[in-house]
Write a structure and sequence with these properties.
Layout (H helix, E strand, L loop, with lengths): L1 E5 L3 H12 L3 E5 L7 H6 L2 E2 L3 H5 L4 E4 L4 H9 L4 H4 L5 E4 L5 H13 L3 E4 L2 E2 L2 H6 L2 E6 L2 H13 L1 E8 L3 H29 L4 H10 L5 H12 L8 H17 L5 H18 L8 H5 L1
Parallel strand pairs: 1-2, 1-4, 2-3, 4-5, 5-6, 8-9
Antiparallel strand pairs: 7-8
């Protein structure tokens, strides 16, 4: 099975590393070619363009920042879709709007190309260890054809329904994540300002009802001031904006998302744009 990976950021690089290590024939492309070097050294073919990467592939994955990046990589000059053969499968794993995912699915179908929206839950560590969870929308028969590659990068694969279902679930997931992180930053700041032992406070929260896996992990980063990016601040702001749009179309006003998004935007304005989402606590520490 020949597999291509378009986009080698925090997530895409880890995912590509897994499919290379597990014996797939892999082509990779990234806007900044320097990020391709390590994967090239591991045996991946480094492509000059998305079209070059996609040519001859059975499966073409994309892991990109937003709708604009996805549109350019799939449909732009030297875009991947035009180079893909009929009956191959395009797999979009980025966190995107539902509208664009459905538009992309239609564009693929018009060319005789299969399409799955398959965003993931998990972060850098899970991508690098093959322990992501795929949230898949699209035909079941396409999922079965793509399953060997998906399984090589994940610990679970959930088929949620037709095209757009994976994208919808991912926005629901990231909405809850963003609100939790913003609330956690306020909670940790309150513990510190009140004179409580912050590590003890984090342990109490982690062991109690609020103690989701995300809260435990991010609280530790806040305590350690460890802001090497696992999830960039601006990307969470983007995800919350996309979630608000999706929920709004369903008649649900996401007021909590608006407040959380402003916290991430404020952190970006304050210089934390290249830092992990845990860094938003620093604005409250000031």
């Amino acid at each position: 099975m020949k597999v291509s990976m378009l986009g080698l950021g925090i997530m895409g690089a880890g995912m590509a590393g897994q499919i290379v290590a597990k014996g797939f024939e892999v082509s990779v492309w990234n806007r900044n070619p320097a990020k391709s070097i390590q994967l090239g050294n591991l045996g991946a073919r480094v492509a000059a363009t998305p079209a070059d990467a996609a040519r001859g592939a059975d499966l073409v994955f994309a892991m990109l920042a937003d709708d604009d990046a996805s549109r350019g990589v799939w449909l732009g000059a030297e875009g991947a879709l035009a180079a893909m053969r009929r009956d191959s499968i395009a797999i979009e794993s980025s966190t995107l709007t539902i509208e664009w995912v459905r538009e992309l699915a239609a564009a693929a179908s018009s060319r005789g190309i299969g399409f799955l929206d398959a965003p993931v839950t998990g972060s850098k560590a899970q991508a690098e260890s093959g322990m992501l969870a795929f949230l898949v929308g699209g035909p079941a028969e396409l999922l079965e054809r793509a399953r060997p590659a998906l399984a090589a990068m994940s610990s679970s694969i959930a088929h949620l329904g037709p095209s757009g279902s994976g994208a919808t679930m991912k926005l629901i997931n990231n909405f809850l994540c963003g609100v939790q992180v913003a609330s956690l930053a306020e909670a940790m700041a309150m513990a510190e300002r009140s004179g409580l032992d912050a590590r003890q406070a984090a342990a109490v929260l982690g062991a109690g009802s609020p103690g989701s896996p995300l809260v435990k992990i991010v609280a530790q980063r806040m305590l350690d001031r460890a802001y090497e990016p696992n999830f960039f601040v601006p990307l969470m702001a983007k995800d919350l904006a996309y979630a608000r749009q999706a929920f709004g179309r369903a008649g649900i006003e996401l007021k909590s998302a608006d407040v959380a998004r402003e916290a991430f935007l404020a952190a970006e304005r304050a210089g934390f744009g290249e830092k992990d989402i845990a860094s938003i606590v620093e604005l409250l520490r000031r």
